[in-house]
Amino acid sequence: MSASGSGAPSGASGSASSTKKAFPRVDLQGNDLPPSPAPSSPHGGRRYNIATELVFTEGSDQYNASSVPIYQSATFKQTSGSGGGEYDYTRSGNPTRTHLERHLAKIMSAQRALVVSSGMAALDVITRLLRPGDEVVTGDDLYGGSHRLLKFLSTNGGIIVHHVDTTSPEKVLEVLNSKTAMVLLETPTNPLIKIVDIGQIATAAHEANPNCLVSVDNTMMSPLLLNPLDLGADIVYESGTKYLSGHHDLMAGVIAVNDLTLGERLYFPINASGCGLAPFDSWLLMRGVKTLKVRMDQQQSNAQRIAEFLESHGFKVRYPGLRSHPQYELHNSMARGAGAVLSFETGDVNVSERIVESAKIWAISVSFGCVNSLISMPCRMSHASIDAKTRAERAMPEDLIRLCVGIEDVDDLIEDLQRALVEAGAVNVTLDGIHAAQAESS
Ligand SMILES: Cc1ncc(COP(=O)(O)O)c(C=O)c1O
Ligand SMILES: N[C@@H](CCSC[C@H](N)C(=O)O)C(=O)O
């Protein structure tokens, strides 16, 4: 399916009447349906640079509220016995959610965005497009929760899932066939920070099967750094729990597409199951997304310094901002930055555990994208839902430490990490030695 052939009316403004005409209404099988209440409208395209677009919004309520109100209402009164209101029931649509969806569609360079209750709910909605017998091709370094959901579908839903090394387009090509209904990519992968060539794989997948949908999990990058739809993906989704919201105070998932019929097929399970994002969480996410650029800029520059610091101590660091990353060029040909997640190995799982437990500013926590810095051991935490045998087959080092860098003062972060490394015996120096060397060089 071509990502560009959306057939969307350009510059549609999103008034109730124009929106209803703009959206073909179909069920999961593509059969026509009557118009849905208040779908999000196609955006009119970006006019300004991203930092401006993140905070700039048009359209509000009848009072021109600067911050879109939280429409904390399950139901909406209708104008007649046969309906007639723009909204009827919050499971089907809510003005706060619609405002956020329109804003995100603009930010994600998409014709339509849909917001749901978590990143996993977003993937669940996307996989409702699949039918028993369909094949899915995905990576062998996949977020643990995505692996778990796909495993459930292959065990119980008749879906055949191929996990291959998606950093090699040849490996993907080997398994692509006319039954491949979906290719599911993540880049950089989590937690091994491997890079996947979205454009090359999307082209190959569409050639193998023109109906194959290429979905990209963009959680590690956010729309600020990467637009998979521009590279040929059909569907982009992300966990809004991470960079988009930025404060670990909500769970959310976002799905974005250019094909409006596909958008309606994705809306169907959201309405049918009731996983659309609640009004208060929609409001919180709308507030969070406005600071995405300032947060990410700071997180990214901190992450770069920290990656260089660890590398200078001889650790094998995985971060696409380092020239030593084997796919540095590929990443930078697709993305506008390296993000703020990096991982490194110590060679000893006990040493890694001591580092994690010695750090003070770095909170021991799963997740990433938050303003606070986090440290974790993926094999025991975020990726524990992948069994030990599979982790070993996929060469996931048990001693791997993942750092998710926040916006704190970078010197404090480095000093805390340095102390933890010394206390854990991971570097062959004493703190006195490090301080003496620092005093000498300053
Ligand atoms: C890459 C990636 N995709 C998806 C998810 C799922 O998001 P959520 O936790 O919001 O369900 C996560 C983390 O949880 C993730 O790291
Ligand atoms: N217990 C959770 C673990 C969530 S991991 C969150 C995040 N994606 C990360 O990579 O840290 C679960 O079982 O899903």
Automatic annotation (TrEMBL):
Q: Has the keyword Lyase been applied to this entry?
A: yes
- EC numbers on record: 4.4.1.13
Which superkingdom does the taxonomy of this entry point to?
A: Eukaryota
A Pfam family in this protein? Cys_Met_Meta_PP
Q: Which UniProt keywords apply?
A: Amino-acid biosynthesis, Lyase, Methionine biosynthesis, Pyridoxal phosphate
Picking any one GO biological process from the record gives: 'de novo' L-methionine biosynthetic process
Q: Where is this region: Disordered?
A: 1-46
Q: Which reaction does it catalyse?
A: an S-substituted L-cysteine + H2O = a thiol + pyruvate + NH4(+); L,L-cystathionine + H2O = L-homocysteine + pyruvate + NH4(+)
Compositionally biased region (Low complexity): 1-18
| InterPro entries tied to this protein | Cys/Met-Metab_PyrdxlP-dep_enz, Cys_b_lyase_euk, Cys_met_metab_PP, PyrdxlP-dep_Trfase, PyrdxlP-dep_Trfase_major, PyrdxlP-dep_Trfase_small
| Pathway as given in its UniProt record | Amino-acid biosynthesis; L-methionine biosynthesis via de novo pathway; L-homocysteine from L-cystathionine: step 1/1
GO MF annotation, one: cysteine-S-conjugate beta-lyase activity
Instruction: Tell me the enzyme class.
Output: lyase
Q: Which cofactor does it need?
A: pyridoxal 5'-phosphate
Q: Which GO terms describe its cellular component?
A: cytoplasm
The PTM N6-(pyridoxal phosphate)lysine maps to 242
Q: Which family does it belong to?
A: Belongs to the trans-sulfuration enzymes family.
Designated name of the protein: Cystathionine beta-lyase
